[in-house]
Design brief:
The chain has five helices and five strands. The protein is of the alpha/beta class. It has two domains: about 35 residues; about 130 residues, Hypothetical Protein Ychn, Chain: A (3-Layer(aba) Sandwich), CATH 3.40.1260.10. Helix 2 runs parallel beside helix 3. The chain is globular and about 45 Å long.
């Protein structure tokens, strides 16, 4: 082989290796990031249906953004105390969480939006079992797909320790 030909071949090979290294270095971080799952937990322990509506809007905006950007996500809502009002059509008569006029007026709209987030956008709904059992609400009175967790606040702490961002709508 001609020494000039070998020299050119080695230069081409070196250039290809360098090009491959640069492309790999640029592509790798985005690949790693694409494999990561964004984890967010919303805390619903309040009774105000307008505030709950604002929270549903926030959750919807978030998951829509992630979907548009092709970002994997695990978004959950943990319901504690007064939050039980939003995962059942039961009026909770005789409990501290009893339905009032504002709740009655907004229940159907909020329930439909919540169920769409769960069914269409795969937002997970988790209710504190302590809250449910203390008010004596039968499990079959919960909206379909609501998971019971032993303690809502323990679940929030557990999820935060697993890297979930914590959001509470004020």
């Amino acid at each position: 082989m001609n020494p000039i030909t070998v020299s050119i071949s080695r230069r081409h090979l070196f250039a290809l290796i360098m090009l491959f290294s640069v492309v790999t270095a640029i592509a790798l971080p985005s690949t790693v990031m694409a494999e990561d799952t964004v984890k967010v937990v919303y805390h619903a322990d309040f009774s105000d249906p307008r505030r709950f509506s604002a929270m549903l809007t926030s959750v919807n905006n978030m998951v829509t953004h992630y979907q548009n950007e092709l970002i994997e996500y695990d978004v959950r809502i943990v319901f504690v105390a007064h939050g039980i009002r939003f995962v059942s059509d039961d009026k909770l008569t005789g409990t501290p969480f009893e339905e009032d006029a504002a709740m009655a007026e907004r229940r159907e709209n909020n329930a439909g939006r919540l169920q769409a987030l769960q069914n269409v956008q795969e937002v997970k709904l988790e209710l504190c079992e302590i809250t449910r059992s203390q008010v004596g609400l039968a499990k079959d009175k919960l909206y379909e797909g609501v998971a019971l967790v032993p303690s809502g606040v323990v679940q929030l702490a557990k999820l935060q320790s697993e890297g979930f961002a914590y959001i509470k709508i004020e």
